[in-house]
Amino acid sequence: MEVKPLREVEHLALKKVKIFRQSALRYILRSMLASMFIGFGVIVAFKTGNYFYLEHSPLTYPMAALTFGAAIILIAYGGGDLFTGNTFYYTFAALRKKIQWGEVVKLWIASYSGNILGAAAFAFLIFTTGLFTESSVNSFLLSVVEKKMHVPTWELFSRAVLCNWLVCLAFFIPMGLKGDGPKLFTMMLFVFCFFISGYEHSIANMCTFAIALVLNHPGTISFDGVIHNLIPVTLGNLVGGGILMGVMYYYVNKPFLDDEEDETKS
Length: 266
Known about the structure:
The structure is a single chain. The protein has one domain (about 5-255): Glycerol uptake facilitator protein, CATH 1.20.1080. Helix content is about 80%, strand content about 0%. It has helices at about 5-20, 25-55, 60-70, 70-80, 85-95, 100-130, 135-150, 155-170, 180-195, 200-215, 225-265.
């Protein structure tokens, strides 16, 4: 494969590191923005899917998956800092010895914390709108949340590995494409694949759970259920982005990256 997209990954990671070094607060605010953008995707996906859910239509998940793609476009073009993508970017940059592993951990913690704060803030804003107060509107969202909170731990972990592998590819593959049209189509397609497959994304789950908790929800949806889901899903996302993307792409492309560096030095 071409080395250029990997160079872009490295460059993007270093830009994010620069922001963090200049101001941790600014970095956390960027992370809050990212999960709020995810929140917009969650709202439009579940509002759309609910129309089909109430009619017991087989198009419920496909339509929700199609509209959720708005989230990745907002993040890619609107800015923001998402923990799941950072598992790939920072792992690759650290393996390339561009940043230290200690700083990578701090960056992961900062982006994850910002994503949580953003999810909570967005859920509060949604609560104030009253758009999800009626059972005829929130039934699809609550049914999905309830299922997510009762999936066995190992299954959650495995789904999360596959999810972030695919989501990181949704950001990475377009780096080698020219023009916004092909990039947008590729991103939307990959996000559709992750959503329709039933994989688990920690930040999307944060936003969905936060919204469900501020609504009138059944007792089967609880904070304990949030913890049960988010711990294995976060770890799975870390493996999917860090190992299957960061480590794998570094290892299989190391000869090409080294050759390019040698040419630059000479």
